[in-house]
Amino acid sequence: MNNQNTQGEQWKLFALLFKNAMEAKGLNNNSLSELVGCSRSTLARFFNLEFCLRFDLVLKIIKELELNIFFETREQSQDLNKWFEDAMNELGRRPDRLLKN
Fold first, then answer.
1. Would you call 30 helix, strand, or coil by DSSP?
2. Burial of 19: CB neighbours in 10 Å, binned 0-12, 13-18, 19+
3. Could you give the CA distance from residue 95 to residue 73 in angstroms, rounded to a whole number?
4. Which of 7, 46, 58, 88 could make an SS bond with 93 (beta carbons 3.0 to 4.6 A apart)?
């Protein structure tokens, strides 16, 4: 499957943002590839805007670069905080709401 053709062009924005964040943290392709567990050539192709990464690698990069991401609706009319809390509860990620022994 050719990732470049099926993903559109939006992923390139992330590549450029991540590249700047990587450089600001003093990292290079070699060090970041070791941290996220992918090959140097994969990251090089990503940062050269030749290849779209899988979502799991994008999440690993976000974690290693210590970036925060957030979502909002265009109209800001939806309660995304509630959606987030519902999702976290469903995943069991809210220990303060777990039953106590």
1. helix
2. middle
3. 28
4. 88
pLDDT digits (tens, 9 = 90+) for 14-41: 999 999 999 999 999 999 999 999 999 9
Model's pTM, two decimal places? 0.72
Question: Residues 36, 40, 45, 51: is their CA dihedral positive or negative?
Answer: negative
Identify the pLDDT of residue 99.
54
In Å, how far are 27, 43, 54, 57 from 30, measured between CA atoms?
8, 9, 18, 15
CB 42 within 8 A of CB 51: yes
Which overall architecture, per CATH, does domain 3-64 show?
Answer: Orthogonal Bundle (1.10)
> Encoding tokens for residue 59?
């999440």
What span, in angstroms and rounded, lies between the C-alpha atoms of 41 and 30?
A: 9
Q: What angle do CA 28, 34, 11 make, to 5 degrees?
A: 65
pLDDT tens digit sequence for 41-61: 999 999 999 999 999 999 999
Biggest distance spanned by C-alpha atoms of the chain: 53
